[in-house]
TrEMBL record:
This is LLM class flavin-dependent oxidoreductase. InterPro entries: Bact_Lucif_Oxidored, Luciferase-like_dom, Luciferase-like_sf. The keyword Ribonucleoprotein does not apply. The lineage of its organism: Bacteria, Pseudomonadati, Pseudomonadota, Alphaproteobacteria, Sphingomonadales. Residues 16-304 form the Luciferase-like domain. Belongs to the bacterial luciferase oxidoreductase family. It holds the Pfam family Bac_luciferase. Keywords: Flavoprotein, Monooxygenase, Oxidoreductase.
Amino acid sequence: MPGSGLQHGLFIAPYHDVIESPTIGLRRDLELVEHVEKLGFAEAWFGEHHSTGWETIGSPELMIAAAAERTHRIRLGTGVVSMPYHNPLMVANRIVQLDHMTMGRVIFGMGPGLLPTDAEMIGVDIKSLRAKLEEVAKIIVPLLSGEEVTHKTSWYKLNKARTHLRPYTLPHPEIAVASAITPSGGMLAGQHGFGMLCVAATETAGFDVLDENWKIANQVAEENGQRMDPVKLRLVVPMHIAATREQARKDVEQGLARWVEYFDRVAPAGMRGMSGGDPVDILVGAGRAVIGTPEDAITMIERLQAKQGEFGVILFQAHNWAEWEETKKSYELYARFVMPHFAGTNRNRQASYAALASNIDRLESERTKGAEAAFKAWEEKTGRTA
């Protein structure tokens, strides 16, 4: 991961209201990645969903391919590929191809699949999803490394399988696994040394177990000869930022209500509970989201740091609560004020300004004395007064 310190990214599920144009929504997702790259964001992640109507990206790989041609620096992740819905060789081939197409900017995020309606529609037993992900985890590293794999399960068979291309990134592209509330994601990450993508970091149930799941991941990693790297720990946070809290509340007045109506239906039981009141009050009051100012965003991230300890990336959840211009402004305010705060970008500038404020009277006195001396020397030389 380039750079050091806390990095910042974008997590695009996406959320597009079923009354709006899906074409415009998808085009704006790509435009948004261009926008945040210019602002200094380090990563952008695209989800995979196949039902419910709102989360319209069926292939994160297609979005990454398109975004890669519009950008130059930002890393692009699958957030996440629902592995029980795919043959792992086909997924590995697509990721390795993207590794070449992006010249090393792709990150492979995988998970069991969030939407039960996806699994039901294609006839996959919902109860089997985590076990299927664990099966894939056993062979995904050698596959992405270009090695030959023979592996048989109840739902796929690989016979001397290997990717068509060897990876651009050696030994293989970075791998992350989704983690929400249960310890299963952390256990899987620890077993194989994967990064973790905490999609429910600010949800009440997710926040409560945030540090505990990381401890579990580290314990399992030690047992398996692996090491968890906190730089590859990513936390997702829903935020909308404006100049004032009142403006932020006004910006999301319509879109947030529609999103809550959707999310309270589709989210796991531990992540619901936003209906039946003012959604801004509910989300902000419970610490589940930032709807406010850059200072509120800073407070949220520092709260996560106090709970979790060190982690590598904050992923700003893209949710389309506000209109397009206000949405872009939200990311700009984050980049202007929140990112510099954690990078210490302005430390020297602020020290210089503080030195100016505390010393200007003394220095101005010296400057005046210097000017007076220059006038006096001129008078003595010319015999004339200024």
